[in-house]
Structure formats: C-alpha cells, structure tokens
Amino acid sequence: MPLLAVRDVLQATPRARIVRLSLGGNRFPYEPGQAVSVGLPGSRRASYSIAGAPHDAVRDDCLELLVGTEGNSQEFQHALRPATALDVHGPIGTFTFTAGPDARRFAFIAAGTGIAPLRAMLRHALQDGRNEAMVFYSARTPHEFAYRNELESLARSGRIDLQLSVTGSGSAGWQQGRGRFGREHAQAIVKHGAPVCFVCGPTSFVHETRRLLIKTGVCPDQVRIEDWLMTTPCLPAEVSAGRGAVLPSLASP
Fold first, then answer.
1. What's the pLDDT band for 246 if we cut at 50, 70, 90?
2. What pLDDT band is residue 124 in, cutting at 50, 70 and 90?
3. Could you tell me which of 113, 121, 140 has the C-alpha nearest to residue 200?
4. Collapsing DSSP states into helix, strand and coil, what is residue 169?
5. What share of the chain is helix, strand, coil (3-state, %, to 5)?
6. Rounded CA gap, 4 and 92, in Å?
7. Could you tell me the residue ranges of all domains in the chain?
8. Is there a contact between 64 and 18 (Cβ–Cβ < 8 Å)?
C-alpha cells in the first residue's frame, strides 16, 4: 500500500480524534471490523480499527480511524494534520462482521474507543433494512462518546436501539444510563431472543461482558470478540489494554 495522506482530523472526544486518510482513488478492500497498521514513514507503527464500513471507504475515497490521543508516540500525535503522509499496512485482524445467512438481530457492545470497529460493523449491517441492531456503549463521561450524534440520530429514526451509559462519577445532569454493562443489560439484549453479539473495549470489559451474555442465554459461538482475547486472561480494568482502536501488541497503556 502506498503512503496515504491525512485528509482531515476532527476532535471526536477530549481523548480521541477522527483521522481520515485519503485513498487517492486506490482500492482498499477490507471486512467491517478490521484494522490498519499506521505510522510515520520509517517509524514504529500502531494498529487502529477502521471506523467506517467498506461502502463508506468507497464512497468517500478514504479510511476513517478513531485515534486515541494517548496512543502511539508524541511525534506521531503531533504529526496528525492534513497532508501528512503516513505508512499504512493492512487490512489486518480477524474480528469481523460474520453471521449466518439467517441472522437478522445484532447487538454491538462497546466501551471507550471500542466503538470504532463496531461502528464499521453497524453501518455495514444497516445496509440491509431487514436487520435489527442494538447498541450498548459505555464511556467515562458524557463527553467521551465518539460518534454520539450519529448514534442518537439513528436511534431517533428507529434504525437502532441505543443505550448510552456513563461509568465515571459526577456527570451532573446526565439522565441516561449509568454504570458498566451488567446482568440487566444482558437480559434486555436477549429478551426477544439471543442476537449475534459483537463486543469490543478494554480486556476486562470484554471478558466480563462475554461471561454475562453466555450466562444469560447467548450461545458462546454467538458472542464475537477478538480471537486473541480467547486466550488472554482477564486483567483489572486499570491495567487492561483498552483495545478499541488499538490492537493488543501495540496498545497504549
């Protein structure tokens, strides 16, 4: 893949930015949920999930990434501005939107920047009007929901069932959900039959969410997570990798 130029950079949350890389008319086939490895030429690369669906990339001639401001080197973070050329490799990763031909109900469960690959999957799924989608998304504060306006717009139009939940203390005035994904959330998801569930976020969040879904009645093979997490022990939240937009081997602390 040739070097790709940064088209634009938008502030998504106080700690994450949307970075769009121009494809310059080049084809870049990938599956919803996959990632790319990105860095300055000749420098160490980090891997970030593609936050747009494949049809978005074709239409807009760009790859959209959600890049945490605490990830990668300071040099890389400071270089993220329009016209900067980045070394891009991929696509990579096996966490993709896979479901049986008869699957029509999906649940996307994210924490933090874990929304990135799930947004790509969601946008792909919504191309088929027969599909039903639920989104549970938790963040520390109301200001840290990336793509919040888009998700709320989809909810208002009846395209998705959306639950936003704040996990941090404070947040005065917040009138929606509070707390991490729990048993009551799992029960709500399987109320009308267990959907295919896709989970992404910090390691501890993914393990606990998977456990709750299975305990509530979802078949293990219907809970899709990163393959590497199946052999990774659950870590305390404060030291977990926080996958979201960054793959494990290059995740920031």
1. very low
2. very high
3. 113
4. coil
5. 30, 30, 40
6. 17
7. 4-92, 105-250
8. yes
CA–CA separation, 109 and 130 (whole Å): 20
CATH 3.10.20.30 fits 105-250, yes or no: no
Domain 4-92 carries which CATH code?
2.40.30.10
Domains 4-92 and 105-250 are alike in CATH topology: no
Alpha-carbon gap, residue 210 to 222, rounded angstroms? 10
Q: Which residues fall within 8 angstroms of residue 79, CB to CB, at 6 or more apart?
A: 40
| Residue 159 structure tokens | 């395209």
Q: Which of 70, 194, 17 is nearest to 9 (CA)?
A: 17
Mean of the pLDDT values across residues 54-73? Answer: 92
Sequential DSSP letters for 133-158: EEEEEEESSGGG-TTHHHHHHHHHTT
Using pLDDT thresholds of 50, 70 and 90, give the confidence band for residue 8: very high
pLDDT per position as a tens digit, 178-226: 989 999 999 999 988 889 999 999 999 999 999 999 999 999 999 999 8
